[in-house]
Amino acid sequence: MENIAFTVNGKAVSVEAEHDTPLLWAVREHLKLTGTKYGCGIGICGACTLHVERKAVRSCQVPVSDVAGKRVTTIEGLSRRGDHPLQRAWVAEQVPQCGYCQSGQIMQAAELLERGRRPTREDIVRHMDGNLCRCGTYPRIVRAIERAIRGA
After folding, report:
1. Which has more pLDDT, 126 or 117?
2. Which strands, in side-by-side order, build the sheet including 2-8?
3. Which of 8, 78, 118, 130 has the fewest CB atoms below 10 angstroms from its CB?
4. Residue 76 belongs to what H/E stretch?
């Protein structure tokens, strides 16, 4: 077991875990931030997407030791009040059905918006490719991202 220190949602934390423990489990089990979901465990569904140093990553594939000294942002840290433009757009477009994949979808989209340019619809689709939604709400996801870009 190692004591691994990093920052989550602006707060310094330390987790005692094996160095190869997936970041997903450190966040969910040790820190009790359960907005990040377990989906497939092999990095292909995107339900566990969060940010490490402002980059979207599949937390089920990142060993917690890799984030030592780094900044991690989960869905809980995207906005203190749940009013990030993407979160507001998700509600306005009624994106979720079951909702399970939505935190990963939003975190993936947030990376795109942080790049500071206006992505095209094709850019959005390409960037979101690989985040799976078993309910098939992809058209609403794209509309919500477009709405957030417009600031509507």
Report:
1. 126
2. 11-17, 2-8, 71-73, 49-52, 55-58
3. 118
4. helix 75-78
Cα-Cα-Cα-Cα torsion 81, 83, 8, 130, nearest 10 degrees, comes to 150
- State the Cα–Cα distance between residues 129 and 99, nearest whole angstrom: 18
In whole angstroms, give the CA distance from residue 111 to residue 123: 12
Whole-angstrom Cα distance, residue 2 to residue 76? 25
* pLDDT range class, residue 152, cuts 50, 70, 90: low
- Model confidence, pTM: 0.95
Q: State phi, psi for 65 to the nearest 5 degrees.
A: -65, -25
According to the model, what pLDDT value does residue 121 have?
96
Q: Quick one: tokens of 44?
A: 């292909």
d(CA 68, CA 88): 32
Residues 6 or more apart whose CB falls under 8 angstroms from that of 8 comprise 27, 31, 33, 72, 73, 74, 77
Pairwise CA distance, residues 41 & 61, whole Å: 8
